[in-house]
């Protein structure tokens, strides 16, 4: 039964991708990568908020709460929650800057404002390098979900099928495909999480949920780490290449800002995720591996047909995020790193890059590589280093492009170096220390010449 | 920082120090300040640790802050 409901979800997602192709515009690179900036409020909302209910957050949040309790929940919900006020301020400004400069990618902004080919390549290379592990993460989540249903499919076949489907979506309709499929994915996941959480609460019994426990002693160092990580990631989430591209798909800045107001309300499903993790912990259920907490809660509380829907929602969720990452990486390479390609060349080049990226990510998740897992920890450490240069462009300050590039490279080096060395002075996240060094370099270079609005 | 209207027929929401304070600063104080404060409080609130329950409450408080900032920005723009 679960196989049938899972199949229906996958079929519906393919139908939506085909519908997205019907709705596509001119078919040029701008339409392929950012839907010609013509998406309506609802589609932009679901596209932008996708990461809140990605497979990583659904599986990761349940696992984190199961293993680490309230401290993990605080960090995880804190940074997502605060990314919306950051987006409330930043996203409309990014939209306006994108329209003014005709940008399609994050690196386009740097080329347009600073007029530097070198900086454009440095920004694009930084973004691509730190985005690489996200693909493997999605495949790992997908394999984990499928394993919970005990179907006899090898990880390699699953990853291959996922890669093929994602490539098909992207080739069919560009960014419109994940936008339309996002609606299905979010409706399914919200229903699944609410159903699973409610069933878990009923199954664990209300009195058990009201047992008072003393608060654990929290060292100041841990607090500092949680707070600095929340600050780092709440800002970082808004300036990732895919988040910036999603902002560019919107029809107006007003719509982008209004959407941000509603987004935190969408997090009201997190209490249900928390209940599922608590249910698994209190029941003492045997968890085969760390990522299996959510699906274990689902498979022990919901009927088979609902398990199929949940698994389908999770699978589609992984592939939607993957498609977003692919559509960010593709143009960063074909448009910004390989300069001078024609409009068609950019589209075809991006599809080749996406194909290679999907193959490598699928192979990594199927067990052919382990370095990606470590690289994933560096994601926000690298992404945040784009912030000083972006702020300079948004404020139209005049800072030499070489200083922006030097700050970015120094910030990356310091953050990654501290991370590899296991050093966290006073518990501060290494990414924030790198960002401080980066900002100092940019500020020092900016102060050496008069800062005037353009 | 320019905050020009993207569509002349739609009223814009201006970005001012006040809207920044209410729409951005206040959520940071509520989320981070509240979490650090409630992390040290014993007991349960509706079955959740107080710090976690506070963050759940922030899922309503934070959009409230942004809605007020939006309204303040529009009032200013009008």
TrEMBL record, chain A:
Task: Name the domain of life.
Answer: Bacteria
- For this protein, the parts annotated as crossing the membrane are 6-22, 42-67, 73-97, 118-136, 156-175, 187-212, 224-249, 261-280, 305-329, 350-372, 378-395, 402-422, 428-447
Know the name of this protein? Sodium:solute symporter
Q: Which organism is it from?
A: Komagataeibacter melomenusus
Keyword list (alphabetical) reads:
Membrane, Transmembrane, Transmembrane helix, Transport
* Record membrane topology: Multi-pass membrane protein
Q: Which family does it belong to?
A: Belongs to the sodium:solute symporter (SSF) (TC 2.A.21) family.
Tell me the PROSITE patterns matching this sequence: NA_SOLUT_SYMP_3 (PS50283)
Q: Where in the cell is it found?
A: Membrane
TrEMBL record, chain B:
Q: Where are the transmembrane segments?
A: 20-39, 51-72
Q: What is this protein called?
A: Uncharacterized protein
Its domain of life reads Bacteria
Give the keywords, sorted.
Membrane, Transmembrane, Transmembrane helix
Name the source organism.
Answer: Komagataeibacter melomenusus
């Amino acid at each position: 039964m679960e196989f049938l409901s899972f199949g229906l979800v996958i079929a519906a997602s393919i139908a939506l991708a085909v519908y997205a192709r019907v709705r596509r515009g001119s078919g040029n690179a701008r339409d392929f990568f950012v839907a010609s900036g013509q998406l309506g409020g609802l589609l932009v909302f679901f596209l932008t908020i996708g990461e809140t209910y990605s497979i990583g957050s659904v599986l990761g949040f349940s696992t984190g709460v199961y293993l680490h309790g309230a401290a993990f929940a605080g960090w995880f919900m804190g940074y997502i929650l605060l990314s919306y006020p950051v987006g409330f301020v930043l996203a409309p400004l990014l939209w306006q800057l994108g329209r003014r400069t005709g940008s399609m990618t994050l690196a386009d902004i740097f080329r347009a404002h600073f007029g530097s080919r070198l900086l454009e390549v440095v920004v694009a290379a930084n973004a691509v390098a730190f985005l690489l592990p996200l693909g493997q993460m999605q495949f790992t989540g997908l394999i984990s979900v499928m394993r919970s249903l005990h179907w006899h499919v090898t990880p390699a076949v699953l990853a291959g099928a996922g890669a093929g489907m994602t490539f098909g979506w992207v080739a069919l309709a560009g960014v419109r495909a994940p936008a339309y499929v996002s609606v299905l994915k979010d409706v399914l996941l919200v229903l699944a999480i609410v159903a699973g959480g409610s069933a878990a609460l009923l199954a664990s019994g209300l009195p058990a949920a009201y047992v008072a426990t003393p608060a654990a002693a929290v060292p100041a160092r841990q607090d500092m780490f949680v707070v600095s990580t929340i600050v780092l990631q709440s800002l970082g989430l808004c300036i990732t290449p895919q988040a910036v591209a999603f902002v560019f798909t919107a029809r107006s800045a007003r719509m982008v800002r209004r959407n941000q107001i509603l987004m935190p309300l969408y997090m009201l499903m997190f209490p249900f995720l928390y209940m599922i993790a608590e249910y698994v912990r209190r029941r003492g259920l045997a968890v085969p591996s760390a990522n299996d907490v959510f699906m274990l809660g689902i498979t022990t509380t919901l009927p088979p047909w609902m398990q199929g829907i949940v698994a389908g929602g999770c699978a589609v969720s992984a592939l939607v995020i993957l498609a977003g990452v692919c559509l960010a990486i593709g143009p960063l390479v074909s448009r910004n790193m390989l300069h001078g390609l024609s409009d068609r060349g950019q589209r075809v080049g991006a599809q080749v890059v996406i194909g290679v990226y999907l193959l490598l990510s699928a192979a990594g998740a199927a067990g052919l590589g382990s370095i990606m897992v470590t690289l994933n920890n560096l994601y926000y450490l690298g992404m945040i280093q784009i912030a000083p240069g972006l702020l300079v462009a948004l404020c139209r300050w005049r800072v030499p492009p070489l200083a922006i590039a030097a700050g970015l490279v120094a910030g990356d080096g310091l953050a990654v170096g501290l991370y590899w060395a296991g050093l966290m002075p006073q518990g501060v996240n290494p990414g924030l220390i790198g960002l401080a060094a980066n900002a100092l370099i940019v500020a020092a270079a900016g102060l050496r010449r008069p800062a005037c609005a353009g | 920082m320019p905050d020009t209207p993207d569509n002349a027929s739609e009223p814009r929401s201006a970005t001012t120090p006040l809207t920044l304070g209410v729409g951005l600063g206040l959520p940071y104080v509520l989320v981070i300040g509240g979490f650090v404060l409630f992390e040290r409080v014993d007991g349960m609130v509706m079955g959740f640790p107080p710090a976690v329950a506070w963050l759940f409450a922030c899922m309503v408080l934070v959009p409230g802050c942004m809605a007020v900032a939006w309204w303040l920005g529009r009032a200013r723009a009008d």
